[in-house]
Amino acid sequence: MFLSIPVFTVCCTLIMQYLEDVKKLPSISGGIEGTLLIIWCLRAFYELEVDDKTAIFQKATFWFILAFYSYYVIVTPFNCVFNILQEDPVYQPLSTKSFAIINSVANYLLYILCMIGLSCLKRTKYIQQSS
């Protein structure tokens, strides 16, 4: 997993320099990023250990993984086709509005799930200190 991060960074940088214009964001490198992060989140879900004492919904890691998984599942498909839709004059206004709405909803969901994770993390630390 630690090797995949530098390889991904190099690949996305090369794609943005030679295949797509940097000004055309979101681009295919964003699609690759989203797909890779979805795979990492699925792997993290699989490796998440459940104790008998606490439910999985009380673990902060579950909520952080769910936050990023949800965000990238919502945003990645639209980011991959956004530039294609922008080139067609018929779809340009609709795609711009849709992009703003989809990103806003995904960001709100990401922040809400991260706040739930932070509250679980704070609660876990408080319980450990009082024991």
Structural features, described:
With 131 residues, the protein is mostly helical. It contains four helices and no strands. The chain has helices at 4-19, 28-47, 60-87, 92-130. The radius of gyration is 18 Å and the shape is elongated.
In brief, what are we looking at here?
The chain has helices spanning 4-19, 28-47, 60-87, 92-130. It is an all-alpha fold and 131 residues long. It starts with a helix and ends with a helix.
Which secondary structure elements does this structure contain, and how are they paired or packed?
Layout: H1 4-19, H2 28-47, H3 60-87, H4 92-130
Helix pairs in contact: 1-2, 2-3, 3-4
Count of the separate structural domains: 1
List unreliable stretches of 5+ residues.
none
Overall shape: it is elongated
User: Helix content range of the residues, please?
Assistant: over 70%
- How far is the N terminus from the C terminus? 35 Å
Strand-residue fraction? Answer: under 5%
